[in-house]
Write the structure tokens for this entry.
Amino acid sequence: MTSLRTATALLAGCLLAVTACSSGGSSTPPAASEADVVAWMDKVCGAVNGTVQSMSDEPKIDMNDPSALKAGLSEWLNGKVAAIDRSIADLKALENGPHPKSKELATAAENGLGQAKTLLADTRSKLDSTTDATQIIAAFTEMLGKAATMDKTGAEVQKKFDETGLGEVSKKAANCKGLAAAPAS
């Protein structure tokens, strides 16, 4: 289960990086009130919160029964993909926010989540297409290896948010604070 905790931590860390804006720049653009931008940022972080929370559990699996192992991992991945789908839909609704780059920023977060979804959905497809325990474990292990590379994607999305000066704004948004404090495993 150590590798599973590692994968969960890496995926949750990537999702946190997608939305938790932590550094510098000016806090608001002149065209929008700070309160409007804070409220929008709170919704952006809230849109991702369900996915982050979803990543904190572990699948119910039986390593001694290949069919139960496959079913447990597939069900677990299904829940993660569904959570990401909800977050992406919520982010799409926020593309027309008060920040001049609202669409660009929401789309960046959507794309980062989309990459996580692709990784999880691809792994689920591999699991669902086999009954061999070795291939099931290999597919999950491959996902763990790829999850580590998602940190780069999260960092790129983080940079895009930071460059817009939303670091200070996110510190005022309750859902962003909650994401920053969310457990990584």
About this structure: Residues 19-30 have pLDDT under 50 and may be disordered.
